[in-house]
Amino acid sequence: MAAFLCSAGMELIQGTPDLSACLAAGEAIDHGHPVVRETAAHLAKGVVDSHDYARAAYEFVRDAIPHAQDSGDPRVTWRASDVLRQRTGICHARAHALAALLRAEGIPAALCCQRLTRDAGGGHVAHGLVAVWFDGTWHRQDPRGNKPGVDAQFSLTGERLAFVPDPKSSEVDYPVLYAEPHPAVLAALKAAPDRPRLWKSLPDALRVRGGRR
Question: What residues have CB less than 8 Å from 168, skipping those under 6 apart?
Answer without folding.
Answer: none
